[in-house]
Specification:
By secondary structure, this protein is an alpha+beta fold. It has helices at 2-8, 29-63, 71-93, 100-118, 130-141, 147-168, 173-251, 259-278, 285-299, 317-333; strands spanning 304-309, 338-344, 348-356, 375-383, 386-394. The protein is built from 10 helices and 5 strands; from the N terminus they run αααααααααβαββββ. Strand 1, helix 10 and strand 2 (338-344) form a beta-alpha-beta unit. The radius of gyration is 40 Å and the shape is rod-shaped.
């Protein structure tokens, strides 16, 4: 049986006492909750075993030492079980599996020796501490394994006690009745604690898993709702960016040969490109959106240089829109050349665009909603033949 137990023993004490996998074999909130629930039961089992052994067994042995058949054997057995149980309890509380086979062999050997050394007069007294103590140390050693191992050990313990009764000739009905009462009384509580702790841990794991699954479903539903709102918002922005100029072209109110109409079309295309880039999953969304605007300007024949200094912090979509829209609009009207610079820090991001100056008022992107993580400033200046546009975000 010891070999089978060693084969069945996991490398780490599992969180559940009945048919449980080893701790760490599966993740998630359910296992964490089961482990926390099981730890309290482990502490209780170790405390009961050691306190019972020290508070009840030791005084009884010391008080009856002169009446025992072999007091040295009984005392040595008590000390051996104390050391063995303390070692197994320490391993259990640290979450490590104890060597089950050797420990159970020691406990069973001591069980036989104590019943033989206690003598017939103390067969049913507290001085024969094996009745009440060994079952608890079986629980400690077998914690986390299937309950049938505990039942097998308790049955072996009962057979050892029955062998002592037969050896002493204590076969009277009263002795057999006391034997049955002792077997039931000492085994039922240990089995109840062993299986009860396993059931509680299993239920805790199941409830935690159910709660985690419900939260995951709620999170997915919220994420889907946010994605739907974002798609609607982007669709509205796309319509605002291109709808007006397309309607004028379709109605003949705008001349495709007019440079101002062409710049409006370029601006609408730049905004569309930025809105498309806005939904991409990239490590640095701000630079990705600026690169999209710069690529479009470069394909339209504008030499442009993009310089990035520092790493922008994570920014909400609204903040990125307010940072990117004005430079995008200025790029749509730029001619000759352009230089786009991004300077970023943990609490501040500045986007600057320097281009050849363009006659007329500067174009601007659609204003974004106010944000709670800072504010975005927009500055446009002209100095002779140079135009300068800057947007700056500061964390408040």
């Amino acid at each position: 049986m010891s070999a089978d137990l060693e084969a069945a023993a996991p490398a780490v004490v599992p969180p559940v006492g009945v048919a449980a996998p080893a701790v760490g074999a599966e993740g998630g909130a359910g296992v964490d909750v089961a482990r926390a629930s099981d730890r309290g039961a482990r502490i209780a089992a170790v405390a009961i075993a050691l306190v019972w052994h020290a508070v009840i067994g030791l005084p009884a042995v010391l008080g009856a030492r002169s009446e025992l058949a072999a007091p040295v054997v009984v005392g040595t057995g008590w000390l051996t079980v104390a050391v063995t149980g303390g070692y197994a309890g320490a391993r259990l509380l640290r979450g490590h599996a104890a060597p089950v086979g050797p420990l159970l062999a020691v406990l069973l050997a001591v069980d036989v020796a104590v019943f033989a050394a206690a003598g017939q007069a103390h067969l049913f007294t507290a001085a024969n501490w094996g009745w009440g103590t060994l079952g608890w140390f079986f629980v400690v050693v077998l914690w986390g394994r299937r309950v049938h191992w505990l039942l097998a050990l308790l049955a072996g313990h009962a057979l050892i006690a029955l062998g002592a009764l037969l050896g002493y000739g204590a076969t009277a009905p009263a002795d057999l009745a006391r034997y049955a009462m002792y077997v039931y009384g000492t085994a039922s509580l240990q089995v109840a604690v062993f299986t009860g702790a396993a059931v509680i841990a299993t239920l805790a794991r199941g409830r935690a898993g159910t709660a985690a699954a419900a939260l995951a479903v709620a999170a997915e539903r919220d994420a889907a709702e946010r994605a739907r709102r974002d798609r609607r918002e982007r669709l509205a922005l796309v319509g605002g960016a291109a709808g007006e100029v397309l309607a004028e072209l379709a109605d003949g109110r705008a001349d495709p040969a007019d440079p101002r109409v062409q710049r409006r079309c370029v601006l609408a295309a730049a905004r569309l490109r930025r809105l498309i880039a806005e939904s991409d999953d990239v490590p640095d969304p701000l630079l990705h959106e600026l690169r999209a605007a710069a690529d479009l300007a470069e394909r339209n024949g504008l030499p442009i240089e993009l310089v990035a200094i520092g790493t922008p912090p994570p920014l909400p979509v609204q903040v990125r829109r307010r940072l990117v829209d004005p430079p995008t609009a200025a790029l749509a009207e730029a001619t000759g050349w352009a230089r786009l610079t991004v300077v970023a820090g943990p609490d501040e991001v500045a986007v600057s665009l320097v281009t050849a100056a363009v006659d007329g008022p500067p174009a601007t992107g659609p204003p974004g909603p106010a944000d709670d993580d800072g504010r975005v400033e927009h500055v446009h200046e002209r100095d002779g033949e140079i135009g300068w546009t800057q947007t700056r975000w500061r964390r408040t």
